[in-house]
Amino acid sequence: MGCCFNISLALTILLPILLSLAFxxxxxxxxxxxxxxxxxxxxxxxxxxxxxxxxxxxxxxTVMLASTNSSFSFNHRLRDGSNLVYDFYRESCPxxxxxxxxxxxxxxFDHRDVSPALLRLFFHDCFIQGCDASIxxxxxxxxxxxxxxxxAIPNQTLRGFDxxxxxxxxLEQACxxxxxxxxxxxxxxxxxxLLAGGPFYPVLTGRKDSHRSFxxxxxxxxxxxxxxxxxxxxxxxxxxxxxxxTVSLLGGHNIGKIGCDFIHPRLYNFMGTGQPDPSIPHxxxxxxxxxCPNNITTTTDEFPDFVVSKRMSxxxxxxxxxxxxxSASVSSGAAFDTHYYQSLLRGRxxxxxxxxxxAAEKTARLxxxxxxxxxxxxxxxxxxxxxxxxxxDVLSGLQGQVRLxxxxxxxS
Length: 412
Hints:
Layout: H1 2-27, H2 43-52, H3 59-71, H4 96-110, H5 114-127, H6 161-174, H7 181-195, H8 215-221, H9 229-238, H10 243-250, E1 258-259, H11 260-268, H12 282-291, E2 319-320, H13 322-327, H14 339-345, H15 352-355, H16 361-370, H17 376-390
Antiparallel strand pairs: 1-2
Helix pairs in contact: 1-3, 4-6, 4-7, 5-7, 10-16, 10-17, 14-16
């Protein structure tokens, strides 16, 4: 009787998901080489599972995870995440996810900016040699003469390292030497995105930590805020992401603030001209000038003008959000909705690389499609691609190590 009830409940919840899937397929009827999609539960309901810690045995989660495993296509490389499992620590550290979840919740309600900070930190980690926590290391393979990955120019404005350290300390007290820093970062990011209003997505675990970091790769392979759409798609394509996945991942910019250090060159020295980007609408340019005045940054040969050093941290709180970008032209809704894409449609992209999504026909169509509903299509795709990214080139099994301190490799 109970079994029948659980099946009935699962089917009841799954029905609207299938209807949403049909809607998505109608929206994109001619997608090539893409797998079917599974609509994820809306955040209001997912947060109840998150808060009550009931999704471990909930039939909806079981159905969603099974559907996810069958319909997500990963980038099949040597380390493709196939060795990861759900609830890897169920025996070795059964309270692991609870500790991550409760710690992030405490941090979030004091520091709402932790969500975009961790999302960016996680992206920069996974984009370079996979989700292996190499971004957290203070040195490269104990070589003091070699720069660490976090010191590469694109990574110098990353934040959230201390938050991962806080979670690691609590886990080390509960389960010494068990939970990897790579899994902590993946789980903490998922939970932070959910708290910020984003969609829930399952995170498989069992990642190991890299014993070294990758300074040169981070310097050359992280997408830049001044990249054109061709280079952006090329860099994402090298990691196995198609146009649709790239556009949905960039939608993560809709939470948090874009620092003036990334916006400044577009406002005052676009492409070395000494002038603003002529494509910025005049009213929006005035708004951007107001938020990012001309005297906040300087440039040196060591630090190109698209980024500022940590030494200029006094201006780190200056910037703009996509909420601000859109508010002057149209009202926006919740934090994790379509306002990023609506901004691009109106020529109000904060970053040149963001606005460049409108410069190619296919990416422009995707921007338009994502902005055309209540955000459900974007949220579904974002959840889907975050799961894919979290399994990108992971270390598992006998590969890698479990660090005791996330900033230091375990010595041999």
